[in-house]
Amino acid sequence: METLRVELGDRSYEIVIGQGILTSIGERLKPVCAGTRVAVLSNHTVWGLYGASVRKSLTDAGFDPAEVVIPDGEEHKSLLWMEIIFGEFLKQGLDRTCTIVALGGGVVGDMAGYAAASFMRGIRYVQVPTTLLAQVDSSVGGKTGVNLPLGKNMIGAFWQPSLVLADLDTLQTLPERELLCGLSEVIKYGVIWDSEFFGYLKEHKEDILALDPEAMSHIVRRSCEIKAEVVARDEREGGMRAILNFGHTIAHAVETATGYTRFLHGEAVAIGMVHAARLSARMGLMPEPDASRVEEMVRLYGLPHELPRDLETSALMDAMARDKKSVSGEVRFVLPERIGAVKFGVPVEREVLESVLKG
Ligand code: NAD
Ligand code: GLY
């Protein structure tokens, strides 16, 4: 069992990473819960796999759990479903002393976090991430929220969890495509922060894909350490937290231009990282061999690396101009200088960007 700490003054919290956590979740929650009332938010897929053991552990530890289980899928990360969730909380008698437990991937985690930020003007919550993406990224750092029909993650709040419990055993049931999406974000940490970690991912591919416990523990821990460090320095993305968005500007454009149906987020991030590295090399910021190493790593894990041929560059450019992070329509990029170091807020000339996207 590994324990890390996200240092945020009186909002600091621990991240516990290990195996067999779900079966002891009740005891683990005791130190952070004010009373015996907790509300578990999950989806049908995850609840079907882990609901019974979570419920048993909670009741064995003396908790009286409310359970709110929503349908699976990003399309339910909406204000409509938030209203349904709040209604369930009230029907099941929750009050301000209650703690929400997010049992699931990033969709459930983002919604549980936003529910906690707004229910009765703010209550506690605990993240129990069950996808690799959620364990290495979305469960840490306090970004919470839902989508609007016109844009992803447009409504939300910064609201830190009281605890993160990452049970590596849950990855055993994760579909391989979802595992690879998590690995895309893991590769991101290597590029933006730690070249040694990047090297580890190359050396230990077989162990990682076989979900070897030591390898998984290492990659989840190192990813969380990096994210915790970045969040501790810039919780609300006034500046350097933007580096966590490496590859995401192009990724969001790809997702928007393909209607969110063709690629999973991590796959779009893989394409985005490869193109951001190419852009950086084209602008003379990153040596060409390093840009090639980003592409090699993405290919090593079987993630997509090229833009679909039928995707119009103009559609991508339009989507980027509307990106949350654009300033007066000008796109700003996170661009690597080498493996392990990036610059953020880099303006890029339209012609250069278009030419890299056209390939
Ligand atoms: P997800 O929550 O949709 O989970 C992916 C799929 O895996 C779902 O079908 C889910 O039911 C299933 N699943 C989850 N755990 C499982 C398990 N252990 N076994 C079998 N199936 C399992 O998607 P995700 O990739 O975890 O998260 C994506 C979401 O996270 C997006 O909404 C994105 O915006 C958000 N996100 C948030 C942040 C943040 O900082 N808050 C960061 C990155 C992504
Ligand atoms: N996933 C980006 C962030 O947490 O800032």
Please characterize this protein's 3D structure:
The chain is of the alpha/beta class and 359 residues long. The protein folds into 2 domains: 2-171, 3-Layer(aba) Sandwich (Rossmann fold); 176-358, Dehydroquinate synthase-like, alpha domain. It contains 14 helices and 11 strands. The strands form 3 sheets. The protein has a 7-stranded mixed beta sheet, sandwiched between helices. α10 (248-257) packs across α13. The chain is globular, with a radius of gyration of 20 Å. Bound molecules: nicotinamide-adenine-dinucleotide (NAD) and glycine.
Characteristic terms for this protein:
two-stranded antiparallel sheet, 2 domains, 359 residues, Dehydroquinate synthase-like, alpha domain, Rossmann fold, binds glycine, 11 strands, alpha/beta, 14 helices
The named CATH superfamily of the largest domain? Dehydroquinate synthase-like - alpha domain
**CATH topology (level 3) name of the largest domain:** Dehydroquinate synthase-like, alpha domain
Radius of gyration: 20 Å
Strand content: 15-25%
What is the arithmetic mean of pLDDT?
96
Number of strands: 11
Can you identify the CATH class of the largest domain? Mainly Alpha
Instruction: List low-pLDDT spans.
Output: none
How many domain modules?
A: 2
- Helix and strand pattern: EEHEHEHEHEHEEEHHHHHHHHEEH
Helicity range of the residues? 40-55%
CATH architecture of the largest domain: Up-down Bundle
Q: Quick gist of this model?
A:
It is built from 14 helices and eleven strands. The chain is of the alpha/beta class.
